[in-house]
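Sample A.
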Amino acid sequence: MAEPGRPEDDETVELAMDVFGRAVVPEGVAEAEPEDLATALEAVCFSLNRPVTLAEVGSILGRSSAAVAAAAEALATQLRGRGLMLQRHGSELQLVTRPETAWAVQRALQPERPTRLSRPAMETLAIIAYRQPLTRAGVESIRGVNCEAVLDSLERRGLIAEIDRQDTPGRPRLFGTTLRFLQIVGLERIDDLPALGEEHAIDALSAVTGAGADDGQGS
């Protein structure tokens, strides 16, 4: 047996660490392709059951945000035609059920029916969705009325949020839609909103939600 402190001991330790490392870390993980990493991403999103960021998942999986983004693209493609979809908004991700399966999920969970948005709220939300980022003044210039109360209501519901400040005197808030908005309208990304064409923004947005809006004038 080698005496303590001899070179043979260092070699033994290195060999043991090498064997242990191969046993703990699956071979080839460092070279994982986006498709392989997508499986791990799906498991993480499913287990956490909440919005996660690319950086957060990267920290969990020991990968860069760019690698996670590539995996997210691969996972979104793999989920086409299935009951789940991966919503992506900026750096946020969340695994959710598709709108087509909402009836089954509702029967299973029996969720409380959400309050319908008023016509003014739908108009304001549609304007922001299609023209974001937009200031309150920008919204009001399009609608022609004061929108402070409506914007406050949409922000409280989590459908819009301040995403930046405009570089002008007073630095007004710039509003944009949120991941919650994507969940409500059932889209993966904001880019998936239907093209306006000859339709008004609210008509296109109503077509996506499939619910329309109340006729009332409240927010």
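Sample B.
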Amino acid sequence: MLCSDDKTTSHFVPLRSPSRNMSLLIKLWIGMFFLFTIILPMTATATDRAKMINCDVHHGTCTQKLQDMDIIFDISPKPVKAMTDLKFTITLTGKQGASEPFIDLGMPGMEMGPNRVFLKSNGKGIYSGTGIIVRCPSGKRIWKATVTVPDKGSVEFIFDVIY
């Protein structure tokens, strides 16, 4: 009777070539980069987003103090949607700056190109102008409006936008 000796049977699995190993390593790094820069930031919980937001612009105006004045911020129409013409309104109470305020739109923690809303006086400390909030390719919906009053300083209103 012939029998096989399992000890002599080879179960050797050949190693992958170095170039294939490098290719897999590169794919792994790309996958990790995508996960940590795109997927995880989009999955931030509602609580995390709520901690950043200091202005519920969908339901009314927002107010912040700057030196001896209040800055009242509003956007219309509501709800505030990206990629639509929006009217930005600032009301200043108290002593105002030497020239008209302006708004710089951006995203918290992200360097973006200039997106400035120039405001014109409507009288009695009310200023308005039009602008557009663009849709972020990453899917992030939290935006900030930095309101600058010349000779006084600036404040940030951070709010959620609907895509």
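B remarks: Residues 53 and 89 are 19 Å apart (CA to CA). The first helix runs from residue 18 to 42.
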